[in-house]
Amino acid sequence: MDNALVPTGWNGQYQSGEAFNASSCNRYYLSGYEAEEDPITSVSFKSPRDSSGHGSHTAPTAAGRYVTNRNYKGLAAGGAREGAPMARIAVYKTCWDSGCYDVGLLAAFDDAIRDGIYILSVLRL
């Protein structure tokens, strides 16, 4: 990870997982899913990585980095760049194929505030 890209005041953790390394400021929350659903078999990636491509599609829109060959479920294919090029994004994944769980959402809010996040944007697929 390039520490020059980490904003001053960032207190967060970096979490690795299936098909995802800890080089990005991303975290995931499985406890609500595990408490409510059958054993983890239908979760596509037990990590901060998204399986639908939605995060890869929207992150460049918010942060402004140019990313090639992105799409969301086959739609809006191509490159993407928008927003604020110097912005930094930390992702807190709380939703899974079967839905979002309150315990994960609340834990993510608590962690984001503790981590020093300035702006929270909540999106549910």
TrEMBL record:
Residues 38-65 are annotated as: Disordered. GO terms for biological process: proteolysis. Signal peptide: none annotated. Residues 45-121 form the Peptidase S8/S53 domain. InterPro entries: Peptidase_S8/S53_dom, Peptidase_S8/S53_dom_sf, SBT. Belongs to the peptidase S8 family. The keyword Signal applies. It comes from Vitis vinifera. GO terms for molecular function: serine-type endopeptidase activity. Pfam families: Peptidase_S8. Keywords: Signal. Transmembrane segments: none annotated. The keyword Signal applies. This is Peptidase S8/S53 domain-containing protein. PANTHER family: PROPROTEIN CONVERTASE SUBTILISIN/KEXIN (PTHR10795).
